[in-house]
Amino acid sequence: MESGVNSSQLEPYSQALFDAVLGAIPEWIARRIHEIVQAAPSGDKDAVAAQLASVTQQTQEFVREHLQQLLSEDVDAQRSNPLHILRRSTAIATEVLQSAQIPPVHRDEFDKSALPDDVYAIGPHTWRDLSEEVHEVGITWGAWKAATVIQRRRAEGKDI
């Protein structure tokens, strides 16, 4: 599943975010699945455990492809954000949990409304949900992106 975009073409802040996110995925997705399965009152927990490596690999590939594509776009052209990609990537784990008949978790009304497909509350709300390193890099990337946009608008004569 090659996107045709080489990550070496990314801006330095985008590259740092790309690397940190991809590095955090295996531990993050395994931790979330483990927490969900451990708390589940029923379901085929062994089936989930047997598919964990595959889920991790598929999630990482999904994020690699889509995040690389997003981060290679000019900041003014980006119509999504990295956390949205991570939230979409949880469909892989969700499918495995559902097929193993693991019951969905309790979610508050905001989560149900904001993330209706994330019935297991796997998706990250913030960078910190992945790791402290991703949090730091994500905040830095966001500041760089905002500064880039502001600088461009000012160069266009717009008051920001």
Structure description:
- The protein is mainly alpha-helical.
- It has one domain (11-153).
- It contains 6 helices and no strands.
- It has helices at residues 12-39, 45-72, 82-89, 91-99, 109-114, 132-155.
- α2 (45-72) runs antiparallel to α4.
- It is elongated and about 60 Å long.
- The N and C termini lie far apart (40 Å).
Which features characterize this protein?
160 residues; mainly alpha
Structural class: mainly alpha
Instruction: Bin the strand percentage.
Output: under 5%
Radius of gyration (Å): 18 Å
- What is the overall number of helices? 6
In total, the number of strands is 0
The major beta sheet can be summarized as: none
Number of domains: 1
Mean pLDDT score: 94
- Compressed to H and E, one letter per element, the order equals HHHHHH
Q: Work out the helicity level.
A: 55-70%
- Uncertain stretches: 1-5
Distance between the termini: 40 Å
Name the shape in a single word: elongated
Summarize the SSE layout with pairings.
Elements: H1 12-39, H2 45-72, H3 82-89, H4 91-99, H5 109-114, H6 132-155
